[in-house]
Amino acid sequence: MTTEAVPLIPHSVLFGNPSYLVPEISPDGTRLVYLAPDDGVLNVWTAPVDRPEEARPVTHDRGRGIRTYGLCHDDRTLFYLRDRDGDESWRVHLVDLVTGRERCATPFDGVQARVLAHNRWHPTTLLIGLNKDRPGLHDVYALDLETDRLTKVAENPGYVSWIVDTDLRVRGGTVMKPDGGLSVFLDPPQGPGAPGGPDGATPWLDVPYEDAIGTRVVGFSRDGATCHLLSSIGANAGRLFAVDLATGRRTLLAEDPVYDVKQVEFDPLTRRPQAVLFAKDRDEWVFLDEEFGKDLGRIRGELALLSVDGEVYLDRTDRGDRLWTVSVVTGAGPVLYYVYDRPAGALRYLFSHQRELEAYTLARMEPFAFAARDGVTVHGYVTWPPGAERTGLPAVVNVHGGPWARHTFAFDEEAQLLANRGYACIQVNFRGSTGYGKRFRNLGAKQWGAAMQTDLLDAVAHLVEGGGIDPARIAIMGCSYGGYAALVGAAFTPEVFTCAIDLCGPSNLLTLLAAGAPYRTALRSFMHAQVGDPETDRVMLWERSPLSRVDAIRIPVLVVQGANDVRVPQAEAEQIVAALAAKELPHEYLLFPDEGHGLARPANRQAYYAAVERFLAEHLG
What phi and psi, each to the nearest 5 degrees, are found at residue 476? Predict the structure, then answer.
């Protein structure tokens, strides 16, 4: 069998609207709610939980589509977030599921809303962060769902994030220190009003720079006596602790010597941890509650009877904790959605996220590891073309964004496109990636364009040595940090790569660090610690910028940008494109006027990936 025997998957199937997405059960257990297209745009649909065929849309967006929504515990209100063409000035919209009335609760121009908290104990209140009064700081407002009234309950004393308990009391927040570390402030329970802050107060927890990404408060028990803390302080990887707030005594609940805790599953009623998830090559659960472990075992057993092998993720929005929605990621097929009936121990299939994908042969991400040039072990995944002999294949190094993120075992549309077209897709969790403990993560500090990039090169060398890929036919592509890495590949090592594709990637680290939305300035010390300080590292930052090495580019480059990007502004694309044009170097430029950081509209996504496929076919063959 060869790749020619595998039918081509249309772009509309991979990058158009999904059939279904993010199903939930309403808090009262009566409704099934999910995202699905309505007139070609993702909107929220509802149906009786036992009659999904009676679904109807309850929102009517005709723009970029809805991707973030939630159901309130008053059992009639749905909220969703929507920005304008990717500008990230999110507004909170409310829908009355009984009357159909829809309204915007935060109708402020140029203001970003963040939903901070809502729960069963305060069914008519939504806590929202708004940078309405000061663009760089989000204050806390209580939104009354019965009157739509917004009331400020806490003014921000300098927090980059807030800490809220189950009674919706603001208990404190986190301040970024000048060295990139954190100070966590946590007060005793109190009523409305600003909590204690950094002005002369003693932090509840002082977090060193090297632990900043892996340490945070993740919640409180319902009785308020215990907070739950993820912390890598004193260890390599992020561990889960229960902290007695009266005595300060910490109890270690879960740890792994190498991998950080990725997720904590809480009991919806007591808010006590029931399980933790470690994302290794595949997910590994550690159970803290025997009954929860039995439930997950029943779900896995039901899936095994159906010959379904995948990662299981749960959504427990039903207040009675009777019905769970279950998402199963097999990697080699669409995401599968089920409803799990706990009392019956039964699993009922709902739908897959993209029905049309079920007709095609897909590929599964396969983990690999190698030793980098300095001996550090680096992990990643390869998605091979289905049916192809794994010898001398053209390949694409697909670099993740962040860079404080990682590739995980998943259904990845880009990997599926590349494998379906005959390319090996290489996805490397280079140093600086999260999930592998703080030592590995901090090896990426000030290594943009340096050791983070050589990890990509060493992955290529490892796979070339194994015979799987052709060293003369390798492309590099990515979004955000991945776009930067693609430009670095073109400017620093054009002898390794045949072509490069940059989506929303910075071309000049100095201008990147000086730009961005006002509310991102609070993270500036973190960026200076991780990327470089323009005051003390100016020469290094310029030397690590692809723009500084544009003369060395001799491979074709595709640059793609959203005009409303507030993270990597349009100027980052314009300056590298202008330099390429001035030197008559081979390049293409696509600008999407109705997008921000990344592409959301299906038509734009399909246009981009059509350009990617044509570009790769022209230059890789």
Answer: -130, 135
Q: What DSSP line would sit under 265-286, residue for residue?
A: EE-TTT--EEEEEEESSSEEEE
Can you list the alpha helix ranges (DSSP code H) found in 139-221?
none
**How far does Cα 247 stand from its chain's mean position?**
36
Residue 470: CA atoms inside 13 Å, Cβ hemisphere, count?
13
Cβ burial of 526 (10 Å; 0-12, 13-18, 19+) is buried
**Cβ atoms of 193 and 155 closer than 8 Å:** no
User: Catalytic residue among 73, 138, 228, 597, which?
Assistant: 597
User: H/E element holding 352?
Assistant: strand 346-352
HSE (CB half, 13 Å, CA atoms) of 464?
15
Is 571 exposed, middle or buried (CB count within 10 Å of its CB: 0-12, 13-18, 19+)?
middle
- Banded pLDDT at 5 (limits 50, 70, 90): confident
Residue 222 confidence (pLDDT): 97
Would the pLDDT of 366 be above 90? yes
When pLDDT is cut at 50, 70 and 90, the band that residue 520 belongs to is confident
- For the CA atoms of 206, 532, 590, 600, the dihedral, rounded to the nearest 10 degrees, stands at 0
Retrieve residue 557's tokens. Answer: 């480059």
What span, in angstroms and rounded, lies between the C-alpha atoms of 546 and 538?
14
Q: Catalytic residue among 480, 525, 545, 548, which?
A: 480
Summarised one tens digit per residue, pLDDT across range 588-597 is 999 999 999 9
Residue 579's nearest CA partner among 598, 559, 595, 607 is: 559
Question: What pLDDT, in 10s, does the model give residues 271-320?
Answer: 999 999 999 999 999 999 999 999 999 999 999 999 999 999 999 999 99
Cis peptide leading into 569, omega within 30 of 0? no
Query: Over 231-264, what HEC string results?
Result: ECCCCCCCEEEEEECCCCCEEEEECCCCCCEEEE
Q: Is the pTM of this model over 0.85?
A: yes
Decide: 131 and 140 in contact? Cβ < 8 Å.
no
Strand 69-71 and strand 77-82: the pairing is: antiparallel
The two structure tokens encoding residue 606: 């399909």
Instruction: Specify the long-range contacts of residues 274-283, CB closer than 8 Å, at least 24 apart.
Output: 276/240, 279/406, 279/408, 279/435, 281/367, 281/379, 281/409, 282/311, 282/367, 282/409, 283/311, 283/312, 283/409
Bridge partners for 226 per DSSP? 244
| Catalytic option among 89, 565, 587, 619 | 565
Active site residue 228: no
Annotated active-site residue 223? The verdict is no
Own/partner long-range contacts of 129-133 (Cβ < 8 Å, ≥24 apart)? 129/162, 130/106, 131/518, 131/519, 132/108
Is the confidence at residue 342, as pLDDT, over 80? yes
What distance in Å separates the CA atoms of residue 440 and residue 526, rounded to the nearest whole number? Answer: 17
Instruction: Identify whether 12 is a catalytic site residue.
Output: no
Contact between 282 and 262 under an 8 Å Cβ cutoff? The reply is no
Residue from 99, 619, 571, 102 nearest 395 by CA: 619
Report DSSP letters for 122-135, one per residue: EEEEEEEEEEEEET
**DSSP code, position 504:** S
In the chain, what are the helix, strand and coil shares in percent, each to the nearest 5?
20, 35, 45
